[in-house]
Amino acid sequence: MQREPSTPTSTLDQAVSVFVELRPRLFGIAYRVLGSAVEAEDVVQEVWLRWQRTDRSVVISPAAFLSSATTRLAINVAQSARVRRETYIGPWLPEPIDTSCDPEVGAQRAEALELALLLVLEKLSPTERAAYVLREAFDYGYAEIADILRLSAVNVRKIVSRARRHLSAERRGTVDAAEHRRLLEAFVSAARTGDVASLEALLAPDAVSLTDGNGVRGAARVPVLGRARVANLATAYPRFWRGADLRTVEANGRTSLMIYRDGEPTAFVTIAASRDGIHRLFWVLHPGKIAAFLGSRSRSTSVLGGPGTS
To answer: In this protein, which residues make up the domain named RNA polymerase sigma-70 region (predicted)?
Structure first.
């Protein structure tokens, strides 16, 4: 029996099916390279549009084609984002994302997902970041990464090795999920009651508090350094905690808090901790990033929605 030729509708249905299956991976790559869920969604949407326009009959591996398109576009966006962030007011932090429904955000393992590591990744060039993410989070082979980045495999090995060395010098050991949650809850409890001594006991000697507000009133515009200063900052404004509704959320694979006031989300708080205690406090007050986090809860696998907004 002769096979009937594919109709345009069936061909598009196949394109949608392939893309929906690969979309979590594509978003995971773009998010880790960019540190922004909104920008990652824009990248994935643009890749979908390109996929529609592509002559898919000549594509041998859709996964390779779509991963390459996503990575290259994310690198381009990262390069322009670096210029835009030069005018950012105060510390810039990656956008947290809700991982309660999609714990690995398309990764084979959760590497390069915690906010602390995403922040360190920002110190690498976009190409170094992409090579590291593809290798460490998604287990791509060096030859595959070389094809994606249009470099030699030897060069890719050097880039990944250099990125590992840089990150190992910046990274610290981390605690397990249960201890992370315990430390976060203890920190908030002590901060709400003004217990500076208990706060200092939870903090590492070189603790740093970073607040991302981009000029929002009340957001610290410089990093706060040292155990004593961080503890004092957390208790300096009692009205910040008074009447606040604290709700536990899962962000980037770790327990975090969303703070509501009068029913409106006003702040996102999380920590990075090692056996020495809490060494990083992250406060996100930027309304756009808070909205992006709440929006990431309902991030759909639909490829037909419009792109995100910055």
So the answer is: 21-78
